[in-house]
Design brief:
The protein is an all-alpha fold. Helix content is about 75%, strand content about 0%.
């Protein structure tokens, strides 16, 4: 009984942490200056936020199928969110979308802007 109650409190804490990271992702989307920093905020904070909520679901569920689905969801988010953010940012750069003027490091500026010249 005490273990179940402790798991419920831990799951509640994880839901709050996940909600905070999701809120940070939304604030990053609204406040950051260009597409590159926005995709970074959305992919990183969104992945951590959704992962924390899915771990909370796995903790309070005593059904193996639900736990397995939550773990598969975490793996799915960790594999797809950073890759899709990278590909979107690269496509935007290749299309000519320039980073914010205050960007100090642009490792792609030495590469050609045309995908056919790579």
């Amino acid at each position: 009984m005490i273990v179940v109650e402790a798991l419920n409190y831990l799951a509640g804490l994880l839901v709050i942490i996940g909600a905070m990271f999701s809120l940070l992702a939304v604030i990053g989307l609204l406040r950051l200056p260009d597409l590159y920093t926005r995709t970074h905020a959305a992919s990183k904070a969104g992945t951590v936020g959704s992962g924390a909520v899915l771990v909370a679901i796995a903790l309070v569920s005593f059904d193996f199928a639900v736990i397995l689905r939550a773990l598969v969801g975490i793996v799915f988010f960790m594999l797809t969110a950073p890759i899709s953010a990278h590909l979107l940012a690269r496509a935007a750069f290749m299309a000519g979308y320039k980073p914010h003027p205050k960007t100090h490091l642009n490792e792609l500026e030495t590469h050609s802007a045309s995908p056919s010249k790579q």
